[in-house]
Known about the structure:
The structure holds two protein chains of two kinds. Chain A is α/β, with parallel strands linked by helices. Chain A has a single domain (about 1-110, about 155-265, about 270-285, about 295-330), classed as P-loop containing nucleotide triphosphate hydrolases (Rossmann fold, 3-Layer(aba) Sandwich). Chain A has helices at about 50-60, 85-90, 115-125, 130-145, 150, 160-175, 190-210, 220-225, 245-250, 255-260, 270-275, 325-330, and strands at about 10-20, 25-35, 40-45, 70-75, 80, 95-100, 180-185, 210-215, 230-235, 235-245, 310-315, 315-320. In chain A, the strands form two sheets. Chain A has an eight-stranded mixed beta sheet with strand order 6-7-8-3-9-10-12-11, with helices on both faces. In chain B, strand 1 and strand 2 form a beta hairpin. By secondary structure, chain B is mainly alpha-helical. Chain B has a domain at about 85-270: Orthogonal Bundle (MetI-like fold), CATH 1.10.3720. Classes of the chains: A alpha/beta, B mainly alpha. Magnesium ion (MG) binds near residues 52, 53 and 184 of chain A. Chain B: It is a multi-pass membrane protein. Chain B: Keywords: Cell membrane, Membrane, Transmembrane, Transmembrane helix, Transport.
Amino acid sequence: MSSAVKTPLLQVRNLRVEFPTRRGVLTAVDDLSFDIHEGEVLGVVGESGAGKSMTGTAVIGLLEPPGRIAGGEVLLRGRRIDNLPYEELRRIRGKEIGMIFQDPLTSLNPLYTVGRQLVETIRTHSDLSEGRAKARAVELLAEVGIPAPERRVNQYPHQFSGGMRQRVVIALALCANPRLVIADEPTTALDVSIQAQIISLLKRLCSEHGAAVMLITHDMGVIAETADRVAVMYAGRLAEIGPVKDVVKHARHPYTHGLMGSIPIVGQDLDRLTQIDGSMPRLSEIPPGCPFHPRCPRVFEPCDQERPDPIPVENSEVACWLYDDKRSGGGGHG
Amino acid sequence: MFAFLVRRLLQSIVVMLVVGLVAFSLFNFVGDPIHNMVGQEATTEQREELREQLGLNDPFPLQFARFVANAAQGEFGISYRMARPVDVVIAERLPATLELAFVSAFFALFLGVSAGVYAALNRYGWTSRLVMTISLIGVSLPTFLIGILLIWIFAVQLQWLPSFGRGDVVQVGAWRTGFLTESGLRALILPAITLGLFQLTLIMRLVRAEMLEVLRTDYIKFARARGLSNRAINFGHALKNTLVPVITITGLQLGSIIAFAIITETVFQWPGVGLLFIIAIQFVDIPVMAAYLMLIALFFVVINLIVDLLYYAVDPRLRVEAGSARAH
Lengths: 334, 328
Ligand SMILES: Nc1ncnc2c1ncn2[C@@H]1O[C@H](COP(=O)(O)OP(=O)(O)OP(=O)(O)O)[C@@H](O)[C@H]1O
Ligand code: SF4
Ligand SMILES: [Mg+2]
């Protein structure tokens, strides 16, 4: 694989996201590292509150105060972007990194036509004339599968159905040809019957535009069908990351194992697949050592004392003491 | 759109009729109009004759219908106190009130929206906290107190501005304006601030709250994620959405500026219709009081209609509902 030698498109190194609150500082993302390569689809899964959205928003630099990046770094094509001044980061948003949010119904400004919103975004990142940008907007609408785009371009968001609006949102996210698109549960708010269409559209368009995707989802079926690699998050930390086949079929981390207990189908919610007793701890109550240890079926002596760092296992990385030969004598590989 | 307008117009007419009924009742329930018109020495026959002449013995609905018909033409009879037609007296004094209200409204709207936007965009800055605190004073101090305070500071102590009256006025056709002379403009400043301050703070707090709400929405987050400039986001996307709900309240506030002018005009001896009304109350000058009530109601109704139309112009969701109903 050539991606192994090339600089990854996105490198997240020991990322830490904190929220100062009245009752102390909460750590929503803790010591998280992962890479995304050019053109790759990285699925990000984990229970609600695992820190998936926080990670995505931190990468694109849109954490809402008082939330902040308290440590680590984010590199885009080897260049650090987490400490850039606001204006420089703004120019990266949309042009280098795009983001799609969960709810297409509320993602568009209700007072402007979709055409105006597209033209504005296109012209922010290029020096196309108004007319050329409008033509480009029509092209984009056609590309995302909106019928009669010449007419639709002059319509307001409320004149589109939910699925059509999410297509408009995708067109908006892609209109400046970003290298990376962060899609945060892009279909959760949609009707089940159109979720698959939207996901395959997103995947097809991104691969045509050569954009990598960070696909945050609860839907293991979507991951199995769409992602090249998967990152599993638990309590703000990385549990396991690896090629989709390995993670889905041969989960190594006991938590992933629990998640994959049944064969996933598109449209099924991850929370209903969870076969592990208990629930993820609240941010204020993350236990010491391995955060999963109170629920882990294979817990042993280092687990409640020391925190496991991700350990390379074949093509994956797993944050579990079972894979540290010195600790477990290789017992985890079975 | 057309049906909407018609419905609104009908509602307005109902409102005007109800206010008309109240104004009309003044004639019958507050004192005896005959008593107010004739002298002490008039005989009972004379009084009865006049009563018959004025139609005061007719049935109530007929009298009311006559009142409405006259009011619709701006006829409110003769002022008891001044013995002049009410419509003429009001027409003379209306420019003073309208000019004062216009300047106050402009001042309140312009500064209120700017300060509100500023306070929302710099939520954590100390200047916006300061502005918010000061605005609390503006909301809680009664208007007459603000007026007296301003007079004391700027007219009595500093002697920069006049404390009462309208200054020199110039007659332009039927309109007597204070805008064209220096003393007229100087005389406007204190009353306009007094009258507008409450609305200013109210509008500012409202705009700030709405704007903060809008800045939290998904479409603003998505606009940021697309790398739009702060300027485009704050003023192109957020402000316009803020104004949709703000328009209604602001419209009503502007209506009440004209109504509240009573107090300001009294404090500053401003020769407008508000002062006229206060004097009319003192003399139980019913025709003037009735005419004033109808006039204020008319202002409210007209402003409400304009607000509805503005709503239509700003929010495509309302517009297209009607459009698509036609198209499909
Ligand atoms: N403003 C905030 N202040 C404090 N904590 C917050 C704030 N916003 C989010 N959090 C916490 O940060 C943690 C991570 O949230 P995040 O939204 O990233 O979870 P998620 O994995 O995306 O979950 P979901 O699947 O529900 O979207 C959660 O525990 C949440 O309670
Ligand atoms: S480190 Fe220990 S507790 Fe954590 S997942 Fe591995 S075995 Fe379970
Ligand atoms: Mg989330």
